[in-house]
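Figure 2 data, in text form.
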Amino acid sequence: MRCDRRDLFKLCGLAGLGLAIPFRPAAARAKTKDDPYGGPYYVVFNASGGWDTTYLMDPKGANGINRLFQEGDILTKGAHKYAPIRKHAKGGMANEDFYAEFGDELLTVNGLDYSVNNHSPGARYMATGKLDSLAYPTFAALVAACRGPECPLAFLTFGNYSATGNLVAMSRVPYLPSLQKIANADAIDGQVRSPYHDKFALDRIEQALRDETAARAAEP
């Protein structure tokens, strides 16, 4: 059974239902193309818990606070001070490499006092700048709403406080493999080497979808 827009409205009217759906003409939908977002991208990393900032961008080295280096060992990059950890690092990028590559682009703010004695309000205050309200969006959600409100998966969150203020849809992806499955939806478990269809079959499916869209666009 094929139901056009007029029939849908009639059926909803008979059922006593009201609709608030932003219909667009088929021709307009057919011409719409989702251009890929070209950036900039914002990554907000909340390193909560017992991590020690004095081993990154707030080194002390005095009175044995940092046992791996002394005050005279502290390195600088422009206005930044950072801890020398290369000889102790067992993997990944050491501070020396990080600041050599990104030091000129960084703004570091040390010593913020949120004046709270509870983790949950502190996390909310840090993320939104507002302590006495649950309605405010996080910085990441605000950026997503301003930069890409129509982009699919504009605001990806992997946990922690993620309020949106109803400005943008939140996509909570707890694990990176889940994101891979979304990005490669035509493959088994997101593995590009294990597609559901052979290439010739996938090409036919995509062509059929394009033909269907064109046919709908040609309807009065």
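Caption note: Residues 8 and 103 are 59 Å apart (CA to CA).
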